[in-house]
Hints:
By secondary structure, this protein is mostly helical. Helix content is 46%, strand content 6%. Strand 1 and strand 2 form a beta hairpin.
Amino acid sequence: MRQVDRHEKYLGIPTIVGRSKKAIFEAVIDRIWKKLQGWKEKLLSRAGKEILLKSVIQEIPTYLMGVYKFPRDTIQRIQSAMARFWWGSDGFKRKTHWRSWDDMCTLKCFGGMGFKDLGVFNDALLGRQAWRLVKASNSLLGRIFKAKYYPRSEFLESSLGFAGSFSWRSIWSSKALIKEGIIWKIGNGKKVNLWSEPWVADEGELQ
Length: 207
């Protein structure tokens, strides 16, 4: 059995993140390129390409997106690779892209193809982790993060700090998204600041 000083990855996620954040996503991009290069695009119909891109390529970075905030450059490279596969190429010459990838990410009922906007999808997955810290504060993840990053407050009132891990900064970046979509339902009113927090009265009080 080979002995190692440290594990570079655990469950596909790098255990140590240095100053260069883009370097940890190179493995994801390489994996996507290998998948795309292995498919014979000339033998696939548009429907076949759509199924492969949606069910395989867009799912590759999902697990990592739930932990880390992807750099914009990385997302653009992934979307560029998908666009090139979709529109095709003749050797080293790229064929014309008749529509932008943003238009391709529009829902089909609005004239697009319904591909995921990976930037928005990344924010949604991180927002889900942030919501877990709000609703399941007694979970192992919640207790560890609270003890390390916001011991005297709750997650929604926490500050970013100066020495947080890349994972913490990624999840914390979605806090604004969470705060836009939440609202207090008034019970006894003891935990709610009526002047600064969004709230709605109980249904019985509105009648």
